[in-house]
Amino acid sequence: MSTSTLERPAAGGGTHRDPELSGSPALATLRRHWRAASLLGVLVVWVVAWAIFKDQYTLVIGGSARTPVFDWLGDRSAWVEQAASNGSNPFINLAGAIADLVDSVFGWLQSLFTVAHFPRPLPQIGWLGTIAVAALVAYAAAGWRTLALVVPCFLAFGVLGYWNDAVDLLIVTFFAVVVSCLVGIAIGVLMAHSRRVSAFVTPILDVMQTMPPFVYLLPMSILFGIGPAAAVMMTLIYAAPPVIRITAHGIRSVSGPVIEATDSLGQTGLQRLWNVELPMAKRTIIAGINQTMMAALSMATIAAYIDSPGLGQPVLDGLKRGQLGTSFVAGIAIVIMAVMLDRSMTAAGFRAELAARAGERGGPFRRVGLAVATVGTLVALYLSHNYIWANEFPAQPDLGTPLRNAVDRFGEWLRTDLSHLTDGIQRGFTDYGLNPIQSLFADSPWFVTAAAILAIAAVVGGRRAAVATVLCLGMILGLGLWNHAMETLTACIVATVAVVVLAVVLGVLMGRSNRVDVGLRPILDMGQTLPPFVYLVPILILFGPNRFTAMLAGVVYAAPVAIKLVADGIRAVSPNTIEAAEMAGSSTWQMITKVQLPMARSSVLLATNQGLLYVLSMVVIGGMAGAGALGFDVVTGFRQSSAVGRGLAAGITIVLIGIMLDRITTYGAQRASATSPDSRA
Amino acid sequence: MTIRTTDTQSPDIPGAPDAAAGSQPALKVEGLWKIFGAKADKIIGSGDAELSRTDLQAKTGCVAAVKDISFEVQPGEVFVIMGLSGSGKSTLVRLLNRLIEPTDGSVVINGEEITSVSSGKLRDMRRRHMAMVFQHFGLLPHRKVIDNVAYGLEVRGESKAERRRRAQEMVDLVGLSGYENSFPDQLSGGMQQRVGLARALAVDPQVLFFDEPFSALDPLIRRDMQDEIVRLHHEVGKTMVFITHDLQEAIKLGDRILIMRDGEMVQCGTAAEIVAHPADDYVRDFVSEVPKGHVLTLRYVMQPVRPSDSLEGPAMDPDTVVWKAARAALASAHPVRVVENGELIGIVDDEAILRVVVAEEEPGTETGE
Ligand SMILES: Nc1ncnc2c1ncn2[C@@H]1O[C@H](COP(=O)(O)OP(=O)(O)O)[C@@H](O)[C@H]1O
Ligand SMILES: [Mg+2]
């Protein structure tokens, strides 16, 4: 198909002239908008088919239905468990050995910080010592401002009543981040130096980054058992991609002339890596470590589903028992931790630069500061080790209980006095927005829906997208959870539409006004660092467990990244173009719709892509918050051993949905940028 | 200051390198080729190698950056390679220390065939026998000046005390005393290039390569740096291969100049020789702007002695630059006798001098010394 009819004169005043077009104006319009027209056509045919064949061939299966595929997957899982118990498979044995190692290191760390170390009634280092060590590290790595941030955060964990859970979460996170970064930086370095390694690793990372954290749960728990070992392994695998990618990128972009000049002095490859590449990429690598740390924190909280210790536990407990106050307070502690880690890492990145500047170890002031801090830490450790008051976090002051009660009372009030309002919103949306679309996807015969999705994929993303869609849909069909997959897909698409609308509106506002940008950006930055889990809680309190809640959480979770992408796209439109369009007398509305948005089209599509993946990961987490469908199948999978097969099938289906949506939007974005006016300048 | 004149140098015979002197050349290049692109090694020897650069690229997609270059550089000589941008200079100089792998040909430095040594040996050569100064400096931004200068010593495993001492010496030599503890981005471009120079000198190489080291600098600073090179050459007497696209710079610094176009050598010789006998229009165009009186020596303007000529004028060396000889020649009523090794080889009359000096603009602003 020809794309030439889509070409426009490089936006210069909003006039569109297609001199080549002959024939009637109606035909011309149709040809120009053939893509929109074909989408509309697909939709019409789909709706008609739905109306005629509704509720036939929908492939609905019962909640406890078994299929050969589920049984086969369940047998694999049983086989793994058996092999683990009798040690018959070297690979499983290796996994077992790793799990044992991780468990013992983890146990040792816990005995230092959070769990009684026999025969002591208390851990080796209690709260005072922990805070002192954290403060010392913060000061040494990032300066006194960070120290002033870290100490109150730690105190807040204790005052909220979750000292042990918070420290456990930090242990899981740091354990995973350290391993992830050691391995990840090494892989990144190899990728930067070898095109072959890069070609091998990149597609793996692509798939890993489209996988929602949730789907790691079940396979990891089968392989490593339930508990800290599986949590750490899952976290470190999930969190590795950013640091790998960013390290490779950082090292690749080290200035060529510097490499050449230092090579000319006869350095070895290792000398180059150590003296030139790593130092020059340091800032970038630290940014990668920061992203890895945030990803690890997300995963480590979700790992509560497989009994990982940490703040995810009270959140999950609260959700299970309907005590949302508990979840909420624990959620606040997670937010505090996320902000603390993000800020500290950013500050450490700056500091790394400064430290290189200020010479060896900084001025005398800093040296004295470090000495004092070290002595203070030693004293705190001594006290903490030997005195109960410095070991067990004091029960008073207690902010957690009043907060919890207040939230519970608020929720109670909402549910009794305001239920008509929240219920109204939720019901209205579900009945008139969600249900019809879900019915179209899930109640049409499967082949109708599949054909429609395929047609849309082909129109949006071209042949490659169509091929990916055929493969993914085929496998989804084969896995036997078609109907649930369509429900999840619907939720995902509806929520993404909301995300994109939000992103375009706010993104345009931000892109056009510095003031809005300055106001919104820090909020979005923070929003992006929070683990998905914590978004669920406040929305659950407001709207109760249902599909709407999960979708809304998805929208809120995905919005920051999407808004920022659109805003950056709008900002990237060349000032010259804007100036020219202004000279041509465009109104503000014309400027936005005819110049800025079309030129930022690939950013909008990228925002759609990211929005979809974020929404997907949230929608499945909402499985236990009433969203049902695939997320629920996964959760049931590790609750009941008879449902493991079905849970695994659901997990794979989620991954397939993710890959399919990712491919369609990625190829769509590529085509859009290949035909967008600015790329031909 | 003055334009560098050839009469301050060893009396080499213009044009041909001093091969007969028995000393080994510091650098010997033979049949050197570099073709970028897939299957580049298949092209040499086939008929395609004869194609022009554009034709070759159209036919095979490969770019012949350096085509069949040969030359020798004597110890202590400053050898300049000149050409327009894209003519293959940077590629050529990188073939000499194998920062780029040659497609064909040989490079011999210090008796070692660079093109075929093992990577370990090559590293060793780079650490001890050659060094390079780059157009964009290539300094390590996270290291202080002194540590940048010491980097070559560090990678070859010298003790910290020794490399400090040596680096300090080099910092002083290039006139950066007091800036040891600055970081590169705190220095001006000219100062950064001095760091690059000190870093190259620190390893005490026999051969120094320069790839347009002053092109990124302002004109005034460029002139300072050129003088610096002249001074350093007098002080340390290294063999230098110097790349530039600026003919003035080439004439000022170079004992001999190699002119390249589209990867090929067009002409090679002393400045005077090139100005006196440009090989083709490309070179003629290049040298048309040069003040000839500052470049040509008496050798190129003298006439054979005729019996009628007066032999009472002042005697001068054939390598004396014309404009320097002008005053004495014009003051004397008799023509200048050109004497080499006590033998009269020609005479230069007033008219010959005036033809060279007056035919061009007043060189007034460039007098001095
Ligand atoms: N890595 C490379 N790959 C392909 N072509 C190159 C490469 N490096 C240089 N060239 C080509 O070789 C020619 C000579 O380049 P260069 O040596 O940089 O010239 P100069 O230094 O004289 O400006 C140019 O046409 C350039 O495009
Ligand atoms: Mg060059």
Question: How would you characterize the overall build of this protein?
Answer:
- The complex is a heterodimer of chains A (681) and B (369).
- With 681 residues, chain A is mainly alpha-helical.
- Chain A has a domain at 418-439 and 482-679: MetI-like (MetI-like fold, Orthogonal Bundle).
- Chain A has 27 helices and no strands.
- Chain A is globular, with a radius of gyration of 27 Å.
- Chain B is an alpha/beta fold and 369 residues long.
- Chain B has two domains: 74-104 and 117-293, Rossmann fold (3-Layer(aba) Sandwich), CATH 3.40.50; 295-361, CBS-domain, CATH 3.10.580.10.
- Chain B is 35% helix and 20% strand.
- Chain B has helices at residues 53-60, 89-96, 119-128, 145-149, 151-155, 160-173, 189-202, 219-236, 247-253, 271-276, 281-287, 292-295, 298-301, 322-331, 350-358; strands at residues 27-36, 63-73, 78-83, 104-109, 112-113, 130-133, 207-211, 239-244, 256-261, 264-269, 315-316, 336-340, 343-348.
- Residues 1-21 and 361-369 of chain B have low confidence and may be disordered.
- Chain A binds chain B through residues 255, 257-268, 271, 275-276, 279-280, 282, 356-357, 359, and chain B through 97, 99, 122-128, 130-132, 134-142, 144, 151-152, 154-156, 181, 183, 196, 199, 203, 209.
- The complex binds adenosine-5'-diphosphate and magnesium ion.
- Adenosine-5'-diphosphate binds next to strand 2 and helix 2 of chain B.
- Residues 89-90, 212 of chain B line the site of magnesium ion.
